[in-house]
Amino acid sequence: MKQVIFSLFLLSAMTMTLMAQHNPVLLFPDGAPGESRKLKQVDDLSGNKVAGCPVLRISNVSDPTLTFYPAPADHNTGATIIVNPGGGYNILAYNLEGTEICKRFNSFGINCVLVKYRVPRHEGLEKHAAPLQDLQRAIAYTRSHADEWNIDPGRIGVLGFSAGAHLSAMASTAYGERTYPRVDAYDEVSLRPDFCVLIYPAYLAGENFSIAPELKVDADTPPTILVQTQDDKGHIDSSLFYYYALKEAGVTAAMHLYPSGGHGYGLRNTGHTVNEWPHRVLSWMRDIDMVN
Predict the structure, then answer these.
(1) 142: buried, middle or exposed (CB in 10 Å: 19+, 13-18, 0-12)?
(2) E runs forming strands in 120-272
(3) Residue 11 lies in a domain
(4) Tell me, what DSSP letter sits at residue 64?
(5) How far apart are CA 154 and CA 209, in angstroms?
(6) What DSSP letter does each residue of 3-62 carry, written as one string?
(7) pTM of the full structure
(8) How far apart, in whole angstroms, are the C-alpha atoms of residue 265 and residue 187?
(9) Contact predicate 267/261, CB 8 Å
(10) 286 Cβ contact partners less than 8 Å away, ≥ 6 residues apart
């Protein structure tokens, strides 16, 4: 019975994926800054499945968008999560780490904004350079629409998976400077996320228990929670080293370290205890007063 219910959830989330792509908001109506490429988006469902269900892998994104997923009106906490799928900065696992996440957190009364940032990587630029512009613009746009969307502008956080977690960490540490040219009045608000959720993050680790040099953690870095498994051997140092940097800077931080589950599971039921992580994140959001 549980598997049937979960399969219905995934079917509903995939339907939501297709519907949501019909009403996105262009982050840069006149074209993304410095974007000379005009790519035809590719949607691929033919790759490896997760928990027996397909993963929608999107590539060739040159016009970044956001899509707002409001919480039910009678169950809206006012908190908002800006969701950033992973994919190595080359593709976006758009349903596994995007639309399914939005639907689950909507059920908790949390609004979501799904970012379709630019991929693949730009030759000659840092892997995160263009995506950070997209995410910063998404934060500004979201915060500027707080009244219209019935959300709290002081409770807007970022959540990311793998490369999307690196992107979320960048937004949490580089918020002091806008990385894109001003587009409109929406860009006058703060770019600082109020909290940060990192799920099996990639690219955060440096050498000898240090973090990647582009990450500048200090006491003003937003409260952060990390979810990691021990058997995700290629990425566990990202979580451990970043948590240590947060602790040393005096940032409110939490980490849930599970024994198994690997990498790239989203919130699907893969049979591992780590699949409970959305509930741990919700409890943590209550602890830091992002959800009442």
Answers:
(1) buried
(2) 156-161, 196-199, 224-229, 253-258
(3) yes
(4) -
(5) 33
(6) HHHHHHHHHHHHHHHHHHTTS-EESSTT--TT----PPPEEE--S--BTTB---EEE-B-
(7) 0.92
(8) 34
(9) no
(10) 292
- Is 185 within a domain? yes
Tokens encoding 219: 């006491």
Inside any domain, residue 292: no
Do the beta carbons of residue 26 and residue 65 sit within 8 Å? yes
Rounded Cα gap, residues 113 and 63, in angstroms: 16
Q: What angle do CA 54, 13, 255 make, to 5 degrees?
A: 85
Residue 103 structural domain: 2-287
Specify the 3-state DSSP secondary structure of 157: strand
Q: Hey, CA dihedral for 278, 139, 211, 50, is it positive or negative?
A: positive
- Please give the distance of CA 15 from its chain centroid, rounded to a whole number: 20
Q: Is 115 inside any structural domain?
A: yes
Instruction: Decide: 109 and 69 in contact? Cβ < 8 Å.
Output: no
The tens digit of pLDDT for each residue in 235-282 reads 999 999 999 999 999 999 999 999 999 999 999 999 999 999 999 999
Sorted by sequence, the CB contacts under 8 Å of residue 169 that are 6+ apart come out as 160, 196, 198, 201, 204, 215, 224, 242
- Phi/psi for 179 (5° steps) reads -95, 5
pLDDT digits (tens, 9 = 90+) for 192-213: 999 999 999 999 999 989 999 9
Look up the CATH number of the domain holding residue 25: 3.40.50.1820
Count of the separate structural domains present in the chain: 1
CA quadruple 125, 129, 134, 137: dihedral, nearest 10: -130
- Nearest CA to 224 among 243, 240, 206? 243
Contact 84, 161 (CB under 8 A): yes
Q: What are the residues facing 227 on neighbouring strands?
A: 199, 256
Q: Which residue carries 């969307």 as its tokens?
A: 149
